Amino acid sequence: MTEPDAAFTVLIQPLGRTFEAPDSLTVLEAASFAGLRLPRSCRNGTCRTCLCKMTAGRVRYQIEWPGVSAEEKAEGYILPCVAIAESDLVIEVSGVQQI
Ligand code: FES
User: Which residue range or ranges hold the 2Fe-2S ferredoxin-type domain (predicted)?
Assistant: First the structure.
């Protein structure tokens, strides 16, 4: 028997919707599984289309050099296409499509 993935809750503001983000998925992928399409393009951490502000929580990245500067990181900006939740998150994203 395998352990279920740890999953954290992500709250999208100002939409007010939440979804579960397991350790095995990026925040972007987890949102898709919940029927929430966040802005995206490259999905590999370079184009910055998905850049959004995280007002609470902690993430780690799948890649070594995601396209977000140290200053942006310090201000809370993340790239959800390559970020994995390490705690419950609150992110600010406009233009979310509910699919
Ligand atoms: S979709 Fe391109 S950086 Fe996230």
Answer: 6-97
